[in-house]
Write a structure and sequence with these properties.
This protein is an alpha/beta fold and 515 residues long. It is 32% helix and 25% strand. It folds into three domains: 7-191, Rossmann fold (3-Layer(aba) Sandwich); 217-388, HUPs (Rossmann fold, 3-Layer(aba) Sandwich); 401-502, 2-Layer Sandwich (GMP Synthetase, Chain A, domain 3), CATH 3.30.300.10. The longest helix has 21 residues, at 294-314. Bound molecules: xanthosine-5'-monophosphate.
Length: 515
């Protein structure tokens, strides 16, 4: 395996699918990097890509404000593939014609190959592709020819063989183009000549070397939350620097039932990682006394966390680095594109104000990885499914799942109810297949009857959602039987609850968490 990491550059023109393109490339064992469409030629050359993909995007190439890349990209001598807007931009930059369609073409189409180009090897002669465009190529520049058509698109795929420039009007990256992976793989491996040296094993080896070089003989501190990212970062750093790593695990009193013990058992005892456990339950409870407003609660919890963490860290000798489980979607540099608010720059939500306060240098060993790659690294390092496949859990923990004032009683009740939800979801085989399932404590008293006695207790809301990235979500249609079992168990086993309701709200308009 070659030691230089081959790379495909994905220039982002504001497509909702840019990250998907980058992930599909990596599924072919080739590293990919998303770059802003307006990157300078010099900077792009410095990236030394083996090939370049121009993404789709919401603009029209003939709009004066449309995002354009440096046309010199087409003469760098590396293969280029334009997808949708990317294809149209190539055509326009090289003197062809693009115009609006009479009707926007959206949905499935059948692709008819006109010749056997290497781009389509294994794709099949008549395969389904996904179209989503309002403009199309009307006239090709010289040197180009069509290699595939659909019923309504004459230039569904085009090539200039001598320049190794390709354009496709459809989206090979989405699941609605079932054999799209062949196109991406052929482009990366056969046209750009990448050998496929991006594997999580090779990533781990390279990353271990890098971390050792960066850190030297200094100590590193990592805030371990028990979530996927910080857990995998801990395992990776431990492999790289062993005893130089100290993880700090803060119990804010708002964790799931048994979580503090589970994390200590796994990392402290099984992995033998130096773990500093701080039980700050009382401090957090005190800072939440009489706080009802959701934003004030989040701020109070966040502020207290930084204080507690900083104190614990100051007791660690020679600490020079703070490690974080920042992942690739947190650091992708995107540029705002006219009329596409989704492409605005993302804030680094993992950073949370710690490094500024602590005056430590950052180590971010997962910053190149997508979530599925983080999981694969975790698996290679021997972390159990219980950690690798766990559902997201918010930093402020059960604090944002107890509506209004947070009391110790409410936390205990919610921990019990939550553990029943997790238990039953696991028994039904649905826990790892669902984005999030949890209970919410509503400080709302209603009347019930148990045995011969009237009850007057609080309500638990059950929430189950499916999502790709937490940005949008659909409520899940859990089987009635399962909902019935969860409800019965909560009412029978959790003192203080006499009613369970189900949340039927998607995001938007709701959010996943209640606060
Ligand atoms: P919302 O409630 O905004 O949540 O729809 C989207 C996703 O983010 C998680 N979440 C958080 N994660 N710190 C986190 O690390 C937080 O403060 C936080 N708030 C919400 C939430 O569980 C869901 O997966």
């Amino acid at each position: 395996m070659s030691s230089i990491l081959e790379k495909i550059a994905v220039l982002d023109f504001g497509s909702q699918y840019s990250q998907l393109i980058a992930r599909r490339i990596r599924e072919c064992s080739v590293f990919s990097k998303i770059l802003p469409y307006n990157i300078s030629l010099e900077d792009l050359r410095a990236e030394n890509p083996s090939g370049i993909i121009l993404s789709g995007g919401p603009a029209s190439v003939y709009n004066p404000k449309a995002p354009k890349c440096d046309p010199g990209i087409l003469s760098l001598g590396v293969p280029v593939l334009g997808i949708c807007y990317g294809e149209q931009l190539i055509i326009q930059m090289l003197g062809g014609k693009v115009a609006g369609c009479e009707a926007r073409e959206y949905g499935k189409a059948e692709l008819d190959l006109k010749e056997n180009d290497v781009l389509f090897e294994g794709f099949g002669d008549k395969s389904q592709v996904w179209m989503s465009h309002g403009d199309k190529v009307k006239e090709l520049p010289s040197g180009f020819r069509a290699i595939a058509v659909t019923g309504s698109t004459e230039y569904a795929a085009i090539v200039n063989s001598s320049m190794k420039i390709y354009g496709i009007q459809f989206h090979p990256e989405v699941v609605h183009t079932p054999r799209g992976k062949f196109i991406i793989e052929n482009f990366c491996r056969k046209i750009c000549g990448c050998s496929g040296n991006w594997t999580m094993r090779s990533f781990i080896d390279a990353s271990v070397e890098e971390v050792r070089k960066q850190v030297g003989d200094k100590s590193v501190i990592l805030g371990l939350s028990g979530g996927v990212d910080s857990s995998v970062a801990a395992a990776l750093l431990h492999k790289a620097i062993g005893e130089q790593l100290t993880c700090i695990f803060v119990n804010n009193g708002l964790l799931r039932k048994g979580e503090a013990e589970r994390v200590q058992e796994l990392f402290g005892r099984n992995f033998n990682i130096k773990l500093k456990y701080v039980d700050a339950t009382d401090r957090f409870m005190k800072s939440l006394e009489n706080v009802e407003d959701p934003e004030k609660k989040r701020k109070a919890i966040g502020y207290e966390f930084i204080e507690v963490f900083d104190e614990a860290a100051s007791e660690i000798k020679d600490a020079a680095f703070l490690a974080q489980g920042t992942t690739y979607p947190d650091v992708i540099e995107s540029v705002p594109i006219d009329g596409n608010p989704s492409a605005m720059i993302k804030s680094h939500h993992n950073v949370g104000g710690l490094p500024e306060k602590m005056n430590l240098k950052l180590v971010e060993p997962l910053a190149k990885l997508f979530k599925d790659e983080v999981r694969e690294v975790g698996r290679c390092l021997g972390l159990p499914d219980e950690i690798i496949l766990r559902q997201p859990f918010p930093g402020p923990g059960l604090g944002v799942r107890i509506i209004g004032k947070v009391t110790m009683e409410a936390v205990k009740v919610l921990q019990e109810a939550d553990s029943i939800v997790v238990d039953e979801m696991k028994k039904a085989g649905l826990y790892y297949k669902t984005w999030q399932t949890f209970a919410v404590f509503l400080p709302l008293k209603t009347v019930g009857v148990m045995g011969d006695e009237r009850t007057y207790e609080n309500v638990i809301a059950l929430r189950a959602v499916d999502s790709m990235d937490g940005m949008t979500a659909d409520w899940v249609k859990l089987p009635y039987e399962l909902m019935g079992t969860i409800s019965n168990r909560i009412i029978n086993e959790v003192r203080g609850i006499n009613r369970v309701v189900y949340d039927l709200t998607s995001k938007p308009p709701g959010t996943i968490e209640w606060e």
